[in-house]
Amino acid sequence: MAEPPRIAVLGAGSVGCLIGGAWQAAGFPITFIGRPKLAGDIAEHGLTLTDFSGWKQRLDEVDYRTDPAAIGEADIILLCVKSGATVEAARQIAAHGRDGALVVSFQNGVSNLDLLREELGDRFELVRGMVPFNVAYLGKGHFHKGVAGLLSAEDRPEMRDLAERVGRDGPAGLHLSDDMLGVAWGKLLINLNNAVNALSGSPLLQQLREHDYRRVVAASQREGLRLLKAAGIGPAKVGAVSPGMLPFAIGAPDWLFNRVFLKSWKIDERARSSMADDLAAGRKTEIDYINGELVRLAERLGKSAPVNSRIVELIRRAEAGADEPWGPAALRREVLGR
Description:
single chain; 8-stranded mixed sheet; N-(1-d-carboxylethyl)-l-norvaline Dehydrogenase, domain 2; alpha/beta; 15% strand; 12 strands
């Protein structure tokens, strides 16, 4: 093979550091671009990566920068910023990136590629990607992948060499798909749990063990599936459960959920949603790009989305510091009215 492409991770937070670090360990030259706080942590402690299976990787030599001008050195740009920062990131890419560079959006939601196209036109090759797992920052340069799953991206000729080099195994293995829009909607249905996890104030595993929290998630998924069907959109299967079965799996009685579904999902005690991390840090969440996507879809269809609309409202209140974490029964009554 020729020399591996040079890769820049724009938005090197928890997900970006996990992907970039795992790919650097696999032999890629990686430049991380992110916040000064993480730059300082990694400069002092190095980059440590772990996952639920016991895998561990330590990197002492890490090129972590805070200046987006470093984008100009890259053949491939992995875009890992929060969805609300997509337009700003696109303008940084436009200002500093090389024409023809490959931009892979590893972001939540379904509308990021549209925003990128509006800002970047045809100067760059844009690729939709998807991250199916949660990554927690444990401090001192240590990032932990707490949930199983492989990265996905569009099956295009320019992605195939990258996928071959990365491989399908390992903590940041890459799978190519010819239905990435369906994959994005399938992931969004799973991500509807993120808001409930954030509102609960609990680790992911603890939250999922509570039936009332899961009832709220299942109701938001059923509402989402009805809207997608009305819009003629077919969400793809992401993970072990098909989209149509997700509300049944999530809403199953505790004895069935814990023994069958939760066990198969391989979630460890340290996993939490990125939305929970954002609330804890006082940052704006991605609620508009997850539950909010379904609210906007309902508006376009002339329909309502009361469950997802209420969840969006509660997250916005939490962003403003208006509420304490919600207990399981209280959240169920607040969202479902029963």
